[in-house]
Design brief:
With 504 residues, this protein is an alpha+beta fold. Helices cover 30% and strands 22% of the residues. It binds flavin-adenine dinucleotide. Residues 10-16, 33-36, 41-43, 57-58, 60-62, 237-238, 273-275, 278, 305, 307, 423, 426-427, 452-453, 461-464, 466 line the site of flavin-adenine dinucleotide (FAD).
Length: 504
Amino acid sequence: MPSDLHVIVIGGGLSGIAAALRLAEAGVPVTLVETRKRLGGRATSFVDPSTSAVVDNCQHVLMGCCTNLIDLYRRLGVESKIEWHRRIHFRDGQGRTDLLDADRMPAPLHLARSMMRFKSLTWAEKTAIARGMFAMTRLDSKRLAALHESSFADWLAQRRQPAGAIEKFWSGIIVSALNERIDRVAADYAIQVFRDGFLRSRESYVMGVPKVPLVELYDAAVERIEQAGGTVRLAASAEALEVEPDRDAESLRISLLRLQRGGEVRGDAFVSALPFERLGRLCPPELLERDPRLRGLDRIELSPIVGIHIWFDRPVMALRHLVLTSSPIHWIFNKGEEKGEEKGEEKGEEKGEEKGEEKGEEKGEEDALDGARTQHLHAVVSAAHDLVEQSPDDVAAIAEREVRRALPEAEGAKVVHARVIKEKRATFSARPGIERLRAPTRGPVANLYLAGDWCRTGWPATMEGAVRAGYLAAKAVLDDMGQDAAAALVPDLEPTGFSRLTRR
Ligand SMILES: Cc1cc2nc3c(=O)[nH]c(=O)nc-3n(C[C@H](O)[C@H](O)[C@H](O)COP(=O)(O)OP(=O)(O)OC[C@H]3O[C@@H](n4cnc5c(N)ncnc54)[C@H](O)[C@@H]3O)c2cc1C
């Protein structure tokens, strides 16, 4: 490939941002095409019309092991906007609080002491969990990969894990991490979560929570990409990829990207950072037929996430977050106290203007915010297959009931407003066999590179997976231009302590 080629990146979620930024930083002329008025894709915020508050579609968290996402935050200059939680708070159905917190022991034993103190688990359950964790550390990469066709529930059953350990521990962590139920999730994906997220290093489990609305993290990307020499075209919707015979006439190449409402974008190489279902719609039949990466797109299933924003008329939660075990609600995040009347003026119209009307479903009636100090909580349900079909009123009622059950301080407090956000297409479902449908970066159409969290990155559908896919696509383009390793992946956290001795 010539060294002055123009690259078109389609889709400005985390994957597209990552690809475009790395290419621009490497001096490649790049244009990022995004259909919305803001970058960030699924990690986004909107203006809640009732309160004028800028709220996230859903809380997005990361972990210490998300090395590439953290690298992207550094490049965007927003690293300081992430608050790190080293203590993870759990609350069970009886209101007992447990704390997951590392002590001075080397990995993988750094969390063992706090787990042994879990009041919600019996000794038999704790011993079984320790046995399960140990078995995970014994798997080499070949045996781990062989588990891909079975579900994590099957693996736990084979390891004779008691029902209590599954309900109160294994299931809760996996549903949140992989957005799928343990009977529907591939065993190797789930085991990888525990190995890389909890056992590998003392830093890997630490949880990062943005201190600002998500849009504030990704707004920075426009400036950074442009400063590095790239172009960002917002509100430009890709409609179709056009193809022409490649030089050898045997294969195809992409000739241009046609935009909705007229116009086209020409380039030498194209990086799709679109969700898989959107990419499928852009491709002409001959492309779908020739490129095996695109043939399985219609077989990838989706898994929903439901988020419920609830405003109480007074502070009801002091902790920053809570993991609920034995509840249909998986997490409660404390989004802070607010003075009702001030919000509109502070955060008003210009933030996330495009999303206010289309996002979210309001729960029935609400009381006006009267300027008293309210508290905004955000409840999250992953793999919410049952909940997505229920009415917003019903979902909000379940969330309120569970929040009150978990937070005794909420007794007597009134809910002044609630908003339910159903993300039906939140992530792909990490079912056994999914790996075969996830596309590699490169394929037979030499100038079409694929990115997005659904691509084959070795990571589940997460922000880290999306950034990895973007970096991998940038690296592939640069490699093809002869700029070797100019955009390599950031390595995983090094295993520390005894984890250096465990099998890989
Ligand atoms: C509710 C919810 C909660 C989540 N929570 C977490 C979490 O806590 N932690 C975590 O790591 N991950 C979480 N995720 C997953 C994470 O958001 C995604 O994995 C990640 O953002 C995907 O990034 P992406 O760039 O691959 O895709 P997307 O974000 O989907 O980006 C694709 C982009 O393409 C654009 N686009 C679509 N069609 C066109 C077109 N025709 N022309 C031009 N542009 C187009 C879209 O507007 C979008 O900006 C969550 C997801 C959801 C939905």
